[in-house]
Amino acid sequence: MIMSLQMEQRDWNELPVHCLVEVFGRVGIESLVETCPLVCKSWYEATFYPQCWEQLVFTKSPSLRSSKHPIPRLILDKDSWSDCCLVVPLDQTKYADESFEKFVKFAIGRSHGLVTAIVFHPKSLLKEGQIAWIAQRCPSLKLLVLPSYLSYVINFEVSNSICNWKDLEALQIASLIGLKKTIANIGCQELEQLDVSKFKGVAGDHEIQELASRICVFKHEGS
User: Fold this and answer.
1) Which sign does the torsion angle of CA 168, 136, 54, 150 carry?
2) In CATH, what class is 1-52?
3) Contacts of 181 by beta carbon, 8 Å cutoff, 6+ apart
4) Which three-class secondary structure string do you get for the chain?
5) Nearest residue to 53 via CA among 122, 109, 126
6) Residue 51's pLDDT is what?
7) Do domains 1-52 and 54-220 have the same CATH topology?
8) For the chain, what are the domain ranges?
């Protein structure tokens, strides 16, 4: 009874900032934007700490546990898209496209370069220059899950930007022109998982197989 009363009388403002930051770094960006800042002043102020914005997951999906961190398993089949709930609504309207771009910039800006994971929804529409912009501002990226569709220009942005992420541990791409160049450009020695299982013809391409031979987990069609 006494403990119950103590819990009811707890002042949420009294929670240490380092505890709030530790928790907020795990709640997801939806809660960081819509819920946590509204509880009290100390919670609002804690959401400005860059450590809260290291994991930027713009979708909700089951997780596939790797040896070092959880890697969201995105099912890219059309029938499963309805199971993935977007943090911000994305349709084909110009407003929604611009709104998502602003949201990505906002979240990355809050991180002050500390982002370690970015996971896009399979149906996210990226704009030209967006990947290059992310590469410049997220040098410590360890996990990158890209949308299922990338325009011709963005394909080459990915290939050219991949060498900037020296600490990259996991990469998932569903469609990419210049896959060989991308694998060759991967300058990180930490990469332990590359998922290109949606590509066709990778299993029979010996050059790609050789380029990816140093990667611990190389997922491709037929593997």
Assistant:
1) negative
2) mainly alpha
3) 159
4) CHHHHHHHCCCHHHCCHHHHHHHHHHHCHHHHHHCHHHCCHHHHHHCCCHHHHCEEECEECCEEECCCCEEECCCCCHHHHHHCEECCCCCCCHHHHHHHHHHHHHHHHHHCCCCCEEECCCCCCCCCCHHHHHHHHCCCCCEEECCCCCCHHHHHHHHHHHHHCCCCCEEECCCCCCHHHHHHHCCCCCCCEEEECCCCCCCCCHHHHHHCCCCCEEEECCC
5) 109
6) 92
7) no
8) 1-52, 54-220
- Which CATH number does the domain 54-220 belong to among 2.60.120, 1.10.760, 1.25.40, 3.80.10? 3.80.10
What pLDDT, on a 0 to 100 scale, did the predictor assign at position 194?
Answer: 76
With contact defined as beta carbons under 8 Å apart, do 14 and 6 qualify?
Answer: no
Residue 181, both tokens: 């160049």
Closest CA to 132 of 157, 167, 155, 162: 157
Nearest 5°: phi and psi at 200? -110, 140
Q: What is the CA radius of gyration of the chain?
A: 19
Q: Please give the span between the terminal C-alpha atoms of the chain, in angstroms, as a whole number.
A: 58
Supply φ then ψ for residue 64, to 5 degrees: -110, 115
Identity of the residue numbered 166: K
What tokens appear for 161 in the block?
A: 């930007």
Query: Which is it for strands 85-86 and 59-60: parallel, antiparallel or unpaired?
Result: antiparallel
**Which residues of the chain fall below pLDDT 70?**
1-13, 60-97, 175-190, 198-209, 211-214, 220-223
pLDDT of residue 149: 81
